[in-house]
Amino acid sequence: MTDTPATEPAPGRESLASLLGGRKGAIDATLPPVAFVAGWLVADSSIGWGAATAIAVSIAVGAFRLLRGDKARAVVVSLAAVVVAALIALRTGRAQDFFLIQLLSNVASALAWATSIVVRWPLLGVVVGLVLGQKTRWRRDPALLRAYSRASWVWVFGQYTLRVAVFGALWWAGEVVALGIARTVLSWPLVALTVAVSGWVLHRTLPSGHPGLRHPQPPE
After folding, report:
1. Which of 98, 133, 188, 197 has its CB 3.0 to 4.6 Å from that of 89, i.e. a possible disulfide?
2. Residues 101-132: pLDDT tens digits?
3. What stretches pass through the bilayer (predicted)?
4. Domain range spanning residue 58?
5. How far is CA 93 from CA 66, 88, 117, 172, 173, in A?
């Protein structure tokens, strides 16, 4: 009797979270701002102590990342951002200005993502395309282009614009402790939520018969 080969189940659509990941990096990025606030509080509102504490923690996190096998370039960039943030706060004499780079970077990100959607180069598609090694093939699939565009709006409003609104209000009011808390809450928990919601929008937008993110379909 000849064995009949078992029929392999059709692979399910790959989740956006499994492709993007990044939770560990997002957690690491929250530690220096928390350290700044802690040092600032313990040293009786001393920006110098807050800055020194943040830089020390950033160096420790960077060393851990290197031991974990992360790229040296990413570690240097992260450390440089903390150093620049500390220098800004020391220069202005306002502790809330340690978070100014974070505020401005989210303004820039919101504008960049919104512009990318308008010009039909949604950044979510660019990022996922690079991760999957597709280069720009995904843009030749009308269904993927439409899905990436809709899902990218989740990043514009659900992450970057929300952060700008919260960080901006707290920075203007000089609420240093609240900025530290917001920096933590609106980091990896918000990133995880954004990835989940944008992934849901992405897959809901794709037609039911579409083979998924790894298989762009040419226009008919």
Report:
1. 98
2. 999 999 999 999 999 999 999 999 999 999 88
3. 47-67, 74-90, 110-132, 153-173, 185-202
4. 16-205
5. 33, 8, 39, 15, 15
